[in-house]
Amino acid sequence: MMNQLHGIIFAYLSNPDLRELTQHRNTCSIPYGGRYRVVDFMLSNMVNAGISDVGLIVHANYQSLLDHVGSGKDWDLSRKHGGLRILPPFGYSGRREGVYRGRMDALAGVRSYLQYIRQDYVVLAGGDLAVNLPLNDIFEAHIRNDADITAVCTSRPMGSPKDCDYFTIGAGGRITDVLVHPPIAQGCESLEVYILSKQLLLSLVDHCAAHNIPSFSTGVLQPMVDALKIFPYVFDGYAARLQSVAGYFARSMELLDPQVRRQLFVPERPVRTKDRSDPSTYYGPGSRAVNSLVADGCIIEGEVENSILFRGVRVEKGAKVSGCVLMQGTAVQAGA
Q1: 61-74 pLDDT tens trace
Q2: Pairing label, strands 53-57, 5-10
Q3: CB 322: neighbour CB atoms within 10 A?
């Protein structure tokens, strides 16, 4: 059933609120959880659901993302036909310089790609959400409801309202109202993952392009909430949105809770990442590590507690690290 689905990941955003974290990369390739990049989660969601063709829409600052995903072989997406496709703004006309103004803008920029999708249905998702979704179940619900669009949302809002959309669910189980970036959270918060048919997607892209509508939320969901059958799929598992530096730190620290890790790293839906073949981490005599996530290739000779260490971090003898997120290759010198 899943070979009817095609994946599109929006990987063009660079959130200015993430400051230094996105200086040399876009939001999707931010390191997260010791050895992953944020985009790994959505790519893995799609691969675990049997999706074999995924398009990654990029715009600027995507060198680090390309280095990470490569040909897609770590996700089993390196194929002769289909597989992983990086979609730079090749169809983007010169009359609108600068970044994509929204998802419909981005889709219009790659319309020639959309036209030749082999599958009947498309799942649209952001690459900046760390979540482990049962996409098979969501697709089955889409077919069962005979929906035009299925929108994945959560009844446990966790994003900042100024960056999120919210749905009101009516008596018949359909979405009856869509709030875009309201001052306070109301209803179910959108996780911005949508399933719809390829035909509907193409007609919406053409409609929005002809009317100069850049946004999916304000251009499709809001005005068409009565005309289209838009059904919610409420997912209340763990989901992390990285919307600010403080938010990044808080979401990272939540990973130290085994309960959160169980929801994000589900054994039957593994999260894949680029294989680096680093050596195991070395713990020196007298070193101490408590309640921490430590990636491969680290050298720990001092003390580490309640922290997340990425690959290749070195903590020298006599150094103490507490409540920190240390990026790849950081060295903490003796006595620090």
Answers
A1: 667 777 777 777 77
A2: parallel
A3: 11
